[in-house]
Design brief:
Immunoglobulin-like; mainly beta; 8 helices; Muramoyl-pentapeptide Carboxypeptidase, domain 1; 9-stranded mixed sheet
Length: about 750
Amino acid sequence: MSKKLIAIALAGLFVFSAVSVKADTISDLQAQITALMTQINALQAQITGAGTGTVCFNTDLQKGMTSDDVKNLQIKLAVTPTSGYFGPITFAAVKTFQTAHGIINTGYVGPLTRAALNTLYCKAAETPVTYPAGCTSAVGFSTTTGAPCSTTVTYPEGCTSAVGFSPTTGAPCAGTTTTTVGPTEGYFTFKQLASPANLTSAKKGTTNTAVLAFTLKANNSDISLKTIKLGFNVRPWRYISKISLYEGSNLLKEVEAVSSAFEEVTVGSSYNLYLTGLDVPILKGETKTFTYKVDVPASPETHGTVTLALATDAIRGVDTVGLNVYAAAGETRTFTTAAATTGALELSINSGATKDKVELISTTDTTEHVTLATFDLKAKYNDIHITEINNVTLVDHASNTLDVVILAAELWDGDTMLGSVTPGTNGTDADFTSLDIDIAKDATKTLTIKASVAAIGDSATKEGDYTNVTLTADAVNIVCEDSLYNPITATGSLTGKNVYFYTVAPVLTFVSSDIKLDENLTDNATGHITFTVKALGGPIYFYDDSTTTKAITIAAIGSTGSAVAATGQIVFSTSTVTADGTGTTTINSYSVSQSYSTTTSDTGEEVANALAVKINLDSNISALVTAATTTADDGIINLTAVTAGYAGNSITYSATTTASTGITVTPTTATNLTGGLNAIASTFAYSVTGYESTDNIVYKIAQNTTATVSVTTHLDNNGGTAGMSSSDLTHFLWDDTSTTPTANDWTWGLETFHTDDLYLSS
């Protein structure tokens, strides 16, 4: 139709020129012809554009629809009338178009038909193209010159060569000549990446674990990646819940791992997953990275090793010629699915409850909710749920039967009481059952043991009675499981501090201390310790230091004998390891490590023995300590300071093992060597302010008042080994009567009542 319109238009122009154009000269005639050709070219461009203008089809079309897209479809397929209604004539025209383009002739305009239409019409009108001599297309070689036909020259609008000027635009035809390379065949360069490596671990409950990665490079042509076939050596749905393909960080496709998603090649041992319709463009010379990732359910049907494979021709793309392009085969890649790390629960005394203390008890009524012990439970590797805490032992240190003194033992979570039981006579029957305690992974739950204590003065509790709490963590005493329902055997222990029951008692509070060398001396020093004493429940009494029996005792470090070396001990449990790992011992800032393996069935004893050897071989560590292990199968490393004397007490030691090894080690935190002593002699005196007594024999501190005690201590290193020394307050004798104020020997809570260390020469 367009050709007929052009012919009619041209004929009209020439008739018009024959009637109306009068040429006096040849040059006048040539000028008129040029003007007529300009009009013809403009009209041709106008008519051609009306029939071949740019139209893109972005939505599917089907019989019965009415839209502008249907009208455009009718225009391009020469359907009349162009009503915009998709009727039987349009339906038949679509089927004819599909047959002509190798598409199943359904009459439905879907993705394939739209792609064919867009190839023809969704682009700007092309300017004239001239192929090399002897070529009629961009395929093959010239029959006259032998040159490739793939190089074509596209000229500006109105030009048919590079000579002259465009009759429509007036622009030079030679100035904007461009070279266009036609469709060419391409090929993939495939490279499988080393990471993720074989045996990558994908544990229960994890998502997006990378298990296989590769790169594709498009060579000689743009290539569109269409399909990938991934092979499995097992039934994938028994191990994973989902598999996803990423291009870089972009998710291309994810598939739920159900049996129907996979092609069974060989029952039980060969399965394929096809990812189709990818349409990932890779430009000529471009390289893109693709990664397969898997999700593992919290409770998979099974677990173990899975092998993946990209076989020859498993990866298919299409080049610009329309030919299929395949990648070479890759290496097999394995990954393991395993149970998520089993949770762990660690029991320890709370850091704020590490000192002995006094509780004031009524003389007439039961004193309720007396705090006996505070402890921590830390969940590791997983969430933990606790249902029972049994065999909480309340140790009685008095002459009375425990269940007469402690009427009820209580378990508290903050301000909430979780349970209350009556302990047995031996204190081992405090069982707290039907608990519902949740502890999140890496969180710590702090619980408290409290008690109802019988009145002092009747047949039950006596003044000065005391108790403490112990609990050993194991599967029986603490019943718990992790979030994957694995039963957990808790570790650690609780040894609470003593709680003393009084009706009247002092509270001692450290204030300050100092120590320095005496003038012009290097082996003598003078120090001071200051503390307060507050009387609770009634007045308290203690002796002046002028009496034979002193109320305060000061111990100088090393005063009991000649210099000895400080010692410490590291213990590796003798269990066999259950996972490969490393044990590490640290002395001050220096560390040595020993690897262990399940392959060789290493034990805690073997790790300890190997570390002891390395400690003695390390020049930095061996300058501080020597290490030795016993012949018994106990996994113990005995450490001894190289230099005798109190200086050894400043050496710290600790040990660690990597998680889930089947062996444990103590201590895990920095701990000082102890017992290093110098031969130090000491004398001291003290003074008291804020007391009532005036006889200079007995100090009296009235109820709810506070006195200040200042102790002056002298240290003399009389021939002992040179080293660090200090003075410690170790005893405070008191009573609630003035007659014999030595009945109660206060030795607890005095850990901070000491001077700093000071170096005394020999």
